[in-house]
Amino acid sequence: MAHFKVENLSISFGGLKAVNNVSFEAEGNVIFSIIGPNGSGKTTIFNMISGIYKPDNGKILLDDESLLGYSPDKIARKGVARTFQNIELFTNATVMDNLMLGRHIHMKTGIWTGAALWGRRARSAREEIKNREIVEEIIDFLDLQSARDQFVANLPYGKRKLVELGRALALEPKILLLDEPSAGMNTEEKEDLNIWIKDIKEEYKITILLIEHDMNMIMGISDRIFAMNQGEKIAEGSAAEVQRHPEVIKAYLGEEERCLK
Questions:
Q1: Are 9 and 28 in contact (CB under 8 A)?
Q2: In what order do the strands lie in the sheet with 3-13?
Q3: Considering all CA atoms of the chain, what is the largest pairwise distance in Å, rounded to the nearest integer?
Q4: Among positive and negative, which fits the CA dihedral 192, 188, 164, 239?
Q5: Fewest CB within 10 angstroms: 18, 36, 222, 223, which?
Q6: 60 by DSSP, 3-state: which?
Q7: Cα Rg of the chain, angstroms
Q8: 158-190: string of b/e by CB count within 10 Å (b at 16+)?
Q9: Residues 31-85: pLDDT tens digits?
């Protein structure tokens, strides 16, 4: 199981300290949630982990190997997959094609040449079959069978979010970064998502780093919670510990505190 660690991570934009000396670690198949008000630095941390931003200081380690200095694509190859607040899918491609795209780091042949592979070497054909089998398993896991051949553009928002989650799973990651996965979902979709995230943890044995504003969801599924404000850590612990922490209540939960007791 993966061991993920961030040490003394810092980054500034235009003289403003967006993340200041942040450290945490997550080991094994756990759900590690990062909470904080808008602008507290949560997504900035994800951007540094996934290689979009280069930190000014600090370390990012996956199984004791540094991820610093690598491109986002190479970090994905190291075992880090991510979903985004704003869905990043090919809307004019089918669900199957989008999930197959998630297999790109495991492919030695072209992504879009499936039909031609049958006339090529047996090795290429076997690779295609294996990748499609993995994608079909993800489609079954996320109950996307009815949507598998539909264009993403024709799917409702909640289904698109599941497709993006499926594409991340197709990378076979060690670490899965979920950035506001329930945003835009209705109550029923959120309840289903809670179950899927728990199942991903158990079935895929993946370490999940979660950013989410739905506090009921956070308190219900997190093994550990890391709370931030203004780019700095203010608390870390179990859901029960964090929701009672005075700095968390002051900085983030506010009037919501009574809903979480």
A1: no
A2: 16-27, 3-13, 57-62, 65-66
A3: 65
A4: negative
A5: 223
A6: strand
A7: 19
A8: bbbbbbbbbbbbbbebbbbbbbbbbbbbeeebb
A9: 999 999 888 999 999 999 999 999 999 999 999 999 999 999 999 999 999 998 7
